[in-house]
Amino acid sequence: MPKVTFTGNLQRHLACPPVEAPGETVAAVLSQVFESNPRLRSYILDDQGRLRKHVKVFVNERVVADRLHLSDPVAAGDEVFVFQALSGG
User: Fold this and answer.
1) Which of 2, 14, 52, 89 counts the highest number of beta carbons within 10 A?
2) Residue 16 lies in a domain
């Protein structure tokens, strides 16, 4: 089962420890994560269900190419890493 890990700055705002979630695409895996942690969804996705501009998702060490539908494939042993960029001045 894929393992989903969240960057430390997300973990400061809400509990989102690493978790295993089934799915064959990034969208399916994240959907499973959001079922058990619904507040996390608004930090990652906008109201259209697309990745927020300041969020990047990696499958293993490769950045997700499909930011609109999150259709990038995920295999059983993969690691999905959700990274939220910091901004400000």
Assistant:
1) 2
2) yes
Structure-model confidence comparison of residues 78 and 8, the more confident one: 78
Tokens coding 27: 């969208």
Q: Tokens 């001045």 appear where?
A: 89
- Whichever domain contains 73, its CATH number is 3.10.20.30
Question: How many residues are given for the chain?
Answer: 89
DSSP letters of 37-70?
Answer: -HHHHHHHB-TTSSBPTTEEEEETTEE-S-TTT-
pLDDT tier at 87 (50, 70, 90 boundaries)? low
Residue 48's Cβ-count burial label (10 Å; 0-12, 13-18, 19+) is: exposed
**Residue numbers of the domain that contains 64:** 3-84
If you compute the radius of gyration of the chain from its CA atoms, what whole number of angstroms results?
A: 12
